[in-house]
């Protein structure tokens, strides 16, 4: 796995072996960013179930200013730290080593891009988006990118965010909501 484009484009990323995390393939990652960007002029990104951190690193590589990554798994946290080190831009990243819900209660300020690839997709995505909105963590026009199994059906509207785009790539489905 590697960073697809931008400042860190082509650099290799480490991933966690086994079934603990499900790394987004380079093909799907490239497709996600082509759907939503592909490049940014600043902004904050929140990667709530960070895994290897590759999506947040890709967002920073493509122009986001700051990223908050949330991961509860210790082995995944170590991989994220190594991947952040590889960027040589550690000051742009903050890793919160905790459960997603706990992080949502601690975060402040609005995010322009939210990346959601939770383990129990549908129920978790709906609850998470509602929580983000309740806490005022979504900037106006924020994009929320949800990666799920292709069989998962998400609602058209969650809280006050609307489904904007949805595409299937192999076994993965990417749904993009706009606040």
TrEMBL record:
UniProt keyword terms in alphabetical order: Methyltransferase, Transferase
DNA repair in keyword set: no
Keyword flag Methyltransferase: yes
GO MF assignments: 16S rRNA (guanine(966)-N(2))-methyltransferase activity; nucleic acid binding
SUPFAM superfamilies reported for this sequence: S-adenosyl-L-methionine-dependent methyltransferases (SSF53335)
Top-level taxon in the UniProt lineage: Bacteria
E.C. numbers: 2.1.1.171
InterPro entries: DNA_methylase_N6_adenine_CS, RNA_MeTrfase_RsmD, SAM-dependent_MTases_sf
Pfam families: Cons_hypoth95
Protein name: Methylase family protein
Annotated organism of origin: Streptococcus hyointestinalis
């Amino acid at each position: 796995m590697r960073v697809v484009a931008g400042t860190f484009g082509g650099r290799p990323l480490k991933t966690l072996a086994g079934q603990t995390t499900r790394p987004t393939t380079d093909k799907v990652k490239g497709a996600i960013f082509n759907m939503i960007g592909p490049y940014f002029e600043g902004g904050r990104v929140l990667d709530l179930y960070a895994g290897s951190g590759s999506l947040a690193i890709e967002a920073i590589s493509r122009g986001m200013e700051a990223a908050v990554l949330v991961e509860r798994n210790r082995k995944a946290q170590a991989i994220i730290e190594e991947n952040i080190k590889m960027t040589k831009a550690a000051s742009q990243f903050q890793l919160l080593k905790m459960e997603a819900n706990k992080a949502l209660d601690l975060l402040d300020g609005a995010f322009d891009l939210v990346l959601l690839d939770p383990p129990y997709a549908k129920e978790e995505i709906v609850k998470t988006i509602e929580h983000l909105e309740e806490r005022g963590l979504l900037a106006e026009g924020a994009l929320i990118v949800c990666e799920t199994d292709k069989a998962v059906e998400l609602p058209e509207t969650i809280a006050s965010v609307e489904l904007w785009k949805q595409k299937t790539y192999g076994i993965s489905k990417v749904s993009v909501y706009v606040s």
